[in-house]
Amino acid sequence: MSWLGRLLSRQRMELDLDKELRFHFESQVADKVRSGIPELEARRLTRLEFGGIEQIKEDCRQSRGTLWVESIVGDVRFAFRTLGKSPSFTAVVVLTLALGIGANAAIFSFVNAVLLKPLPYPHPERIVSVWERNALGFSSNLISTLNFLDWQRQNRCFEFLSAVALDTVTLTDSGRPEELKVYRVSASYFKVLGVGATLGRTFVESEGEVGNDREAVLSNRIWRSRFGGDPNVIGRKIALDRKDYRIIGVLPANSEFDRSWGVMWLPLAFPPAVMTRNYHWLYAIARLEPGVTLKQARDQMDTIGTRIAAQYPDSNKGWGVTVDPFIDQVVQPDLRRSLWVLLAAVGAVLLIGCANVANLTLARGTEREHEMAIRSALGARRLRLIRQLLTESIFLGILGGVAGLALGNAFMRGMKLLLPPDMLPPQANVRMDYGVLVITMAIGILTGILFGLAPALTGTRARSLKESGRTTAGITPNRMRTALVITEVALSFVLLAGASLLIRSFNRLASLNPGVDTTNVLAMDLPTPLTEFTNSTTLTNYLKELTEKVRSVPGVRDVAITDKPPMEGYVNGAVFLIEGRAYLPYPQRPVCGFKVIGPSYFDTVGMRLSKGRGLEENDVAGNVPVTVINETMAKTYFKGEDPIGKRILIRQLVFGKAERGPEIPWQVVGVVKDEKVGGKVFSLGEDIPVVYVTFYQSPGTRNSLVVRAAMSPLLLRGSIVQAIWKVNSNQAVANIETLEEIKSESVTPARLRTALLAIFAGIALLLAAVGIYGVVSYSVAQRVREMAIRLALGASPGDLLKLVIGKMMLIVLVGLALGGLGALALTRVLASLLYDTSPTDRVTWVVAGALLAAVALLACYFPARRVMRVDPMVALRYE
Amino acid sequence: MQTEDKFDLPQGTLDLLIIKIVALGPIHGYAIAQRIQQMSREALEIQQGSLYPALHRLEYKKLLSAKWQQSETGREAKFYELTAQGRAQLKFETENWKRLTNVVDLILKGTLEGVS
After folding, report:
1. Is the pTM above the cut of 0.80?
2. Nearest CB to A59: which of B30, B53, B60?
């Protein structure tokens, strides 16, 4: 019978054992009765002869070899009882561990979903993203139609190569017009990903052709919310931009498609108007042919790129192709870095927690010295005692793990609520999955061993019973306590320094002047589909009419059209050349932002002119094309010159076509102070050269409205939308936000990682303080007699205070120094997450160090004060 | 008699005695204790605290097997039997014992022959 089988049949064995001994007992009694002893007396005698029946049973069990399994059960039971007897110790330990483990579980569930899980596609390693590399070396430039088609025709390295364009369409089916975000994709898009529809089908090749492209694949989310999850939706027609589209498929539920930016996938067809080489507007993803390596694909695409550049130097000279693993596009480096930093931070918090618990266990070990001495006097071997103590620690670790799992789940849910929707890649499905559960429990058990081993080793060192009553602390536990405090202080300092750097950087970022007056300004998108406006004059007049109608709403101060609201980037970049400067071939010219606005834009958002005039109502089509440039543009490209009157050559945007027209000169009439164009798109801190032109002179279909109100602009929301609908009841109004909101959103990732790291650093500091407090109060309690003697010999209470605090602060300083070295090495990884802040920023480091030292001093002072109350008479009376 | 009660068995001898007794036929624990006592003419009294752990140890080592049977008093008792392995062990241990006692005897009786 195996030990397991025997353990399982233990119940039976116990019964047998009992029966066997009872038989012996009864037989012995019967014999005695037979020899003439009265029964009662016979029983008494037999019981005396038998001795401890439990002892006999235990010996029998032991001789059967099941003991080690049973003794673990016993150890656990014993641990349960011991810990139950000191509920406050247990509570503090479990709480500390739960906090540390919970934070780890939460962050790890993000790391797991974002960094460790492969993309949810078959053979994700074969999926790549493909970009153009422009002549200036920018490696992820959007792609022009003809270049893309050439790649598609000429390559032999991709099984499928698919283009993607982001778009918005207006759904006019159900009363109110609504803007929907959509992807227009090549027919092979879902083949690249290797994903099929759960209902209906995805696209087939012919649907990428013009005239054959009126079909839609829905995300599961919109299918459920807008179409009630109706399985008969396949084949139904919906009106997008007033054209009929047929629904052909629904994508899987709870997939990345439910979490992505767009809600619908439409075929991407290339009408003649977009058949150009110098208008870059497409993304691309591809699936490598089986057996083709990334390097081979890069080489082949390089060759193709070079060939195209040689063939069409006008548009392509110096341009090339970038092929990168898709995962690198899905998980941006900043996110990757933030997650690793946070994971390291919670790891450090857990280590500090472990150090604290080890400290507590050490102190408790001293209290239990007597117990251990008795046990070993009764014959327990040291290994057996260590095992028993470790069982206790591991048991605590598991309790902490379970509590931490619950806490971590709550943390994770909270963080998911706080996260803006587009901060994590849609492919990341953050949840407490099996892997996270296993890892968390493993961490629990591991921490149990980690904080339990050292105290178990020192606590069971052989001591005689005589010694154990009145112990003067052994050297080793004290040295271990010192080491633990040093570790805690060092780790806390690293965290504190990192958090302070992020906070300083965030403050600089958040207090950045956005260049616009954000109070009381509302921004909204006005999708104006090409299908409604076939020529630029009708569009221009329509936008003008809208502007005037909104201006007449009571409470509106000013209103303007812009292609993008402040801090949200611009629609078009422009390759330019300043007239009269040395000629540069087109592909090698510098690039600036080309922002299309209404003349009232600068006033509405509160931008100030620094030179010349602003854009005016009579800067219309047919008049001289004029531009106002920002100061960065003036400083970068008109160094030491007056830009006013200079002309900038930029190819015209052709209305309704994905194409650049002929080059025209834009005359600079003014210079305006920078607004922060970046934010959601670029970093908010980036200064970007921008030229502003009126929409009269360069109309486009991507338009937003900014409105300055005399009051809180959200109050005007309803009346503004009504005013718009009075002009056109089919006009969708989307993304209504105040500039304050936009500004706040643009620093959300930075705010989030800063807040999290600050919270973890705070916890670390608190735990370190608790640790120092514990060690000091323990050593003071231990040294009462010594202190009493010192007092009796003439030391003043102040001297003693200085002695205790001085010694501890020396330890803290050692920890600070080590932490400083660690931080020096580690904060470097923060560099790319910092805005205008050096990782070795001296002020930040000094502040962090001072804060830690101050907290440590307080944590020393309070328990150390007790030496002042030592009364030598009382303390020495019992000597 | 009191002194003989405290007779200490050399280590490992109890196992040998038990095997020997069990070899005479299936027998339960109480009877083993009595049989040893009788056969040693009351010189040995085996304590339950030694007997049963020994029985269980021998059963665990598969030298003995056990089954529940009616005893002479009509109650169920656990009867031990010698296994083939136990029989071999008995033979081996008996010879060992004899050799050992001979040697010990030699030394205890002997004069130091050959050494002046």
Report:
1. no
2. B53
